[in-house]
Amino acid sequence: MPRYQQIFMIFFLLANFLLAGVSYAAADIASITTAVGKVTAITPTGESRKLEKGDKVALGETIKTGKRSQVVMEFTDKSRFELGSKAEMSVSEFRTGNKEKQQEPSFVSKVSVGLFRFVSGLIAKESPNAMKVRGAVATIGIRGTHVVGEFQGDTAKVILLEPEGEPHPTAIDVSNQFGSVTIDEPGYGTEVPDAHSPPSPPRRMKMQMIRNMMQSLRAVQRISVPRPRM
After folding, report:
1. How far apart are CA 219 and CA 223, in angstroms?
2. Cβ atoms of residues 158 and 171 within 8 Å
3. Model-level pTM?
4. Residue 142 lies in a domain
5. Span 46-62, mean pLDDT?
6. pLDDT in tens, 163-184
């Protein structure tokens, strides 16, 4: 083998060796403000780490909660995402936008399973159509709002809540390949009963249902520690 080919081969092998040893790194997009129980981040390369309050979340990581666990994330645009027990979510796109580079804002997340609550931030205010939460049977388009929902198997439940802070226009679009609905009144919601049905027409949800979902999100924080026997 000619000498220049040997040098090229050595350089090629060395480059691959170095790349193999580099850990996954991506831009931080959120901070953990609450972590109860088992909360894990998994990178696209399969690396796993435990998350605690104050830790950062990077773009592309999958966040998972265990049994009787909960996590709250605050994103750099002040959006907040809360997951209940046995939930899983990830963020595939997160851009605050750049007018000079003609880059549009975008926030696209996926909740694979579990109960969640979402409070939108600056991205939704600047670009109402830029935020989406995808699930197995429906996609939620967020337009500056406060939402609680749950994806379980082939079913989904999504409810629009009162906006936090000062009152402002609020709405969500829930859609799949079979149809779509727009919900623009807090307290109203929709359900997808199976993988072959459109979202149901918007209807006022029972207050007890909303309470139960909110309590389930935070139940783990109220678990009492048994007192020692005297």
Report:
1. 7
2. no
3. 0.81
4. yes
5. 96
6. 877 667 789 999 999 999 999 9
- b/e for 152-178, b at 16 or more Cβ within 10 A? eeebbbbbbbebeeeeeebbbbbbbee
The two tokens of residue 71 are 């996590």
Q: Which amino acid is at 152?
A: Q
Per the domain annotation, does 230 fall within a domain? no
- Nearest-CA neighbor of 154 among 120, 131, 171, 178? 178
- The gap from C-alpha 130 to its chain's centroid, in whole angstroms, comes to 14
Give the whole-number percent of the chain exceeding pLDDT 70.
Answer: 80
Tokens 């931030």 map to which residue? 121
What pLDDT is attached to residue 209? 93
The parent domain of residue 64 ranges over 30-222
Report the distance separating Cα 99 and Cα 75, nearest Å: 21
| Cβ contact 133:90 at 8 Å | no
Q: Hey, CA dihedral for 193, 198, 201, 202, is it positive or negative?
A: positive
| CA dihedral for 26, 29, 33, 38, sign (positive or negative) | negative
3-state secondary structure (DSSP) of residue 224 = coil
Q: Is the pLDDT of residue 230 over 50?
A: no
| CATH number of the domain to which 77 belongs | 2.60.120.1440
Provide mean pLDDT across the span 153-163.
Answer: 94
43 within some domain:
yes
183 occurs within a structural domain: yes
Task: Please tell me what DSSP assigns to residue 208.
Answer: H
Cα-based angle 57, 63, 64 (whole degrees, multiple of 5): 150
